[in-house]
Amino acid sequence: MAATRNDLSTAPGSWSMRRLPDMDEAQFDQWQTLLEHRTGISLAPERKSFLETNLGIRMREIGCSSYQAYYEKVVSSPDAVVEWSTLVDRLTVQETRFFRDPDAFKLVADYILTRPREVLKQRPLEAWSVGCSTGEEPYTLAMLLNESMNQLELPPLFGITGSDISKPAIDKAQRGLFNARKLLGMDEALKTRYFRPAERNSVEIVERIRERVCFTRLNVLDLKHAPMHGMNIIYCQNLLIYFRRWRRREIVKRLAERLAPGGLLVLGQGELTDWQPPGLQRVPSENVLAWIRRQSDEE
Ligand SMILES: C[S@@+](CC[C@H](N)C(=O)[O-])C[C@H]1O[C@@H](n2cnc3c(N)ncnc32)[C@H](O)[C@@H]1O
């Protein structure tokens, strides 16, 4: 009979109290290959203890005592898809914050403010935060676009999409509810304009911003299935750092195809080195890695 988590944590000698055996090299290879094949994330050998810890936590939760048995569960059991979805959330780093990279956000604001008014009036601006985690980045973009449109005295015609591989992260992003600590250090005027107090020390994004942001679950390795096209801004930071160089290039190429001519692509500093993505022109900046898509696809 299956024991409850409580029984197991109090029963000395039960499997939950036992330390999982160390992961050997072949097992590490097997898990690393699966993770990289399905998500693009490449785990260096130094991160073996990260893998052991996070697999271990999940294995204890479901009462699985060997890495091999758990591997079978993730790849071939009837609930493999659901289990994988839970596991991927545990194996991804979801650290994020509002206005995380001020220089990059300033570049985005300058980009909007210097666009021809006629263009901004004709068609809503579309921005996409790729690997958006729990939503702080796409909501920051929404605040920024709103501020810029206000400054230009234009109606707030824009839409933001946030996408991530983790369903729990996307669910949290969709709620638009954050711990008040997340606003520490943020400009007071922005706090007042875009957040309102909610229950138990949390704050909520105001409706007029929330309604401009939508979220979807999307693996960046599956960009060919993504419906996003003609984006004015694609913002992808702190995701490609987990990928090998060749894969970063592939993904950047795919993202570039999703930009509108004249659209802006922003990555994190140092996330792509020694390579010029075709069809894109580097934005001169010391602190921000960004490109504009050329008007025609000629080099
Ligand atoms: C460190 S967070 C970055 C969040 C935000 N972009 C920022 O810079 O603050 C990385 C995010 O990438 C997501 N991620 C990892 N692999 C992914 C993949 N293959 N497809 C889509 N998202 C992925 C993770 O779930 C995580 O939320």
How does this structure look, described?
With 299 residues, this protein is α/β, with parallel strands linked by helices. It has 2 domains: 5-91, Orthogonal Bundle (Chemotaxis Receptor Methyltransferase Cher, domain 1), CATH 1.10.155; 102-293, Rossmann fold, CATH 3.40.50.150. The protein is 42% helix and 17% strand. It contains 12 helices and 10 strands. It has helices spanning 5-10, 25-39, 48-62, 67-76, 80-91, 102-113, 117-122, 136-151, 167-175, 188-194, 207-210, 245-257; strands spanning 125-130, 158-164, 177-179, 195-198, 202-205, 213-217, 231-236, 259-267, 280-282, 289-293. The strands form 2 sheets. It has a 7-stranded mixed sheet with strand order 6-2-1-7-8-10-9. It has a 3-stranded antiparallel sheet with strand order 3-5-4. Strand 1, helix 8 and strand 2 form a beta-alpha-beta unit. Helix 4 crosses helix 5 and helix 6 (102-113) runs parallel beside helix 8 (136-151). The radius of gyration is 22 Å and the shape is globular. It starts with a helix and ends in a 6-residue tail after the last strand. 30% of the residues are buried. Mean pLDDT is 92; it is low at 1-13. S-adenosylmethionine (SAM) binds at residues 39-41, 92-96, 100, 131-133, 137, 164-166, 169, 219-221, 237-239.
